[in-house]
Amino acid sequence: MNQIPLGTTYDHPLLVTPEVAIDFLGNDDARVLATPWMIAYMEWACRNAIKPYLDENEDSVGAVVNVKHLAATPVGMPVTFTGTVLEVEGRRVSFKVVARDEKEIVGEGTHERFVINVPKFVARLALKRAGVKEAQ
Has this prediction a pTM greater than 0.85? Predict the structure, then answer.
């Protein structure tokens, strides 16, 4: 892993479609960006912010999400999800996350990710699937 500069930012644009919207009270006019999708795209922005600084066998996984969904964004409106690096401590990277539509901030909070070695991660998952307890 290369040094990840504080303030590193990534913006992920998205047009809200029915696939990422919640069906509220069965009324199509009330369909808005669903909270789980908002969080997923916030995580994606954070992952993409640090990806250029990771080695070939590295990636990152989400560990902590602390966000508020502040306002509704209707289907058809664009949203931008921004992840900004606040702190790097070893393999732990902390981010500020913000989601903005054309009118306002619709979500904000913090997110933490851990940089992992993908082959080692896959090996641990294989042991878990096989029911083998990893040596501590």
Answer: yes
